[in-house]
Amino acid sequence: MQRDDAFLRAWRDTATRAPEPEDEELARPPLRCRTLWISDLHLGTPGCQARALLDFLKHTECETLFLVGDIIDGWQLKRNWYWPQAHNDVIQKLLRKARKGTRVIFIPGNHDEFARKYLNHNFGGIDVAEEWIHETADGRKLWIIHGDLFDGVIQCAKWLAHVGDSLYEFTLKLNRHLNSLRARMGLPYWSLSKYLKGKVKRAVSYVGDFENAVAREARKRGVQGVVCGHIHHAEMRDIDGILYCNDGDWVESLTALAEHADGTLEIIDWAQHMPVTAKAGAPREAVAA
């Protein structure tokens, strides 16, 4: 049986086990929001920042949590199985949130496309959906998608996307070695991959084309905005009258999108919320979009 099917079965079976003991009272007060969006966690890869993600999940509360794709990296798991306890802890925490009343909605992306076989199913209280329309507290309708359907490389040359994923993984390994050297020199973390994306004109053009394509489709659907992930670039801006929101990623930037009680939206940089000790212990490596 394929590993991805085995994992989905494990996800389902985990929900039937006895609940684990609750965490001890935490000193830091939680950030309370109406809605949270996170994507591109890439669980199942050595570069997944599971420790930082657990800190986020422990210190936030919301009515609805959207998992906007690439939560589990099926591409990497097929090449090399990697699933440490910390990644299991993330799944357990998501299931616990669902048990305690948070509505959790999982919209699969290209890296966890195996889950699209389970659309309209529920795993341990987590709903799997292809897309979603979310209404904010102030009455705006937001279309929720991962975004890979608007990526020409994914749709027209998937083999090239896999090649790019492998090359990107090499860049990240180099990035890890560079940052080990920087740490010994007392210098802060620096993302080689983000630097390259910002400098290569074709990459900058790709981001702009993606954002405009998603906004055009949202306008056709008659909504006021769109929330997506996929390109690992957090952004919130108006595109010809459509509110374009990208919640970024949890491998390079540790970002999420939040809706507050009055319906206002905000991109959260969780690195600014984490204690110094947690930042120091969080592994810094990323994976491709």
If strands are numbered along the chain, what order do they take across the biggest sheet?
4-5-3-2-1-11-12
Structural class: alpha/beta
Which strand-content bin applies to the residues?
A: 15-25%
Q: Determine the CATH topology of the domain at 26-147 and 226-273.
A: Purple Acid Phosphatase, chain A, domain 2
The count of strands amounts to 12
Number of helical segments? Answer: 9
Mean pLDDT: 80
- Pattern of helices and strands: HEHEHHEEEEEHHHHEEEEEH
Bin the helical content.
25-40%
Radius of gyration: 18 Å
CATH class of the domain at 26-147 and 226-273: Alpha Beta
Identify the overall geometry: globular
Give the second-level CATH assignment, the architecture of the domain at 26-147 and 226-273: 4-Layer Sandwich
Give the full name of the CATH homologous superfamily of the domain at 26-147 and 226-273.
Answer: Metallo-dependent phosphatases
